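thread from #wetlab-drylab

HS: before we spend reagent money on co-crystallization trials with NAI, can we at least see a predicted complex? here's what I'd submit
DV: go for it
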Amino acid sequence: MRVAVFSTKPYDRRFFDHANCDFGHELTYFEPRLTRETVSLAEGFPAVCVFVNDVLDADVLEQLSAGGTQVIALRCAGFNNVNLSAAEQFGIKVVRVPAYSPYSVAEHTVGLMLTLNRKIHRAYARVREGNFSLEGLLGFDFHGRTIGVVGTGQIGMLVTRIMAGFDCRLLGFDMYPNDDCISLGLEYVSLDTVLRESDVVTLHCPLTPETRHLINAQTIKQMKPGVMLINTSRGAVVDTRAVIDGLKEGRIGSLGIDVYEEEADYFFEDLSQHMIADDVLARLLTFPNVLMTGHQAFFTQDALSAIAETTLKNLEKIEQTGSSKNEVKSQQVKGQK
Ligand code: NAI
């Protein structure tokens, strides 16, 4: 299939070219993100391959359809950036990679927790400057602490499994209890109880209309003073301004995020020579107890291989049979499972 691949980085190219030896698709790589301004690049391509911050709103989809695009292959799990009903209206199929390596994200999540708690990021810089003082580096034992997992699907379950190894008390909130989590000792409770009783709250639900700003001024007030909040799901699950207020008041003791609601203009790019115009992002970066990574939780060799392989397989299936088990339909948006 002829595929226009957007938001391409050298590492995408490397993994896709390697996996494509088994498929023989005709891949054309474009560096820019897919937006209203760049959509014309896709003209004449039956397939378009996109990532988390490409824009697939009704306007873009209409132009894709007019240019002959019939399938959009997301090389990620989340599909919050696609207007699925518009895609259906224009007869464009949407496929995704539902599971590539939930381990990558779960392990990064726990990495954020451990680093924030023991201030390893600060200790690293300090020791390299010959400062061996421990002042300000005090952490706590995870052993015996309560971890609240919001969204106990593939990634939430793996985080639960790792934290069970630390002998934590495990609380979870999800509309669909996961038997694997229950057998790991996780207790399903209401969201209120998760927020009220957890020392660490970690978010693993998809971004949907229901979960947008799930963590907001109101829910932050319910949390334990000094709580550690971790978000490796999607930025807009959290109201960042409310979180900044929570950090300033000390209600939130530390924040670890791999995603940010307005990340699209910043993440995946080297902007070290530029000013950050987004005051909310700039403010977040001033807190010593905030650890931010730029949407890298998925970024392992294993995940990139699996993403490339599944994406190309999805396209092959669509080309050969007209459907794929990894197709996303608009009714899936509610409580994605
Ligand atoms: P999954 O579909 O296996 O699990 C999601 C769980 O969230 C499901 O059990 C679902 O019932 C639950 N859920 C849905 N709405 C909820 C709500 N309102 N409250 C509580 N739970 C709710 O998905 P998976 O693979 O575990 O991924 C979770 C999310 O992680 C993805 O949707 C994606 O946004 C994010 N992600 C982030 C990556 C990164 O690099 N930072 C990479 C991959 C995924």
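DV: DSSP finds twelve helices and twelve strands in the chain.
HS: ok that's useful, forwarding to the group
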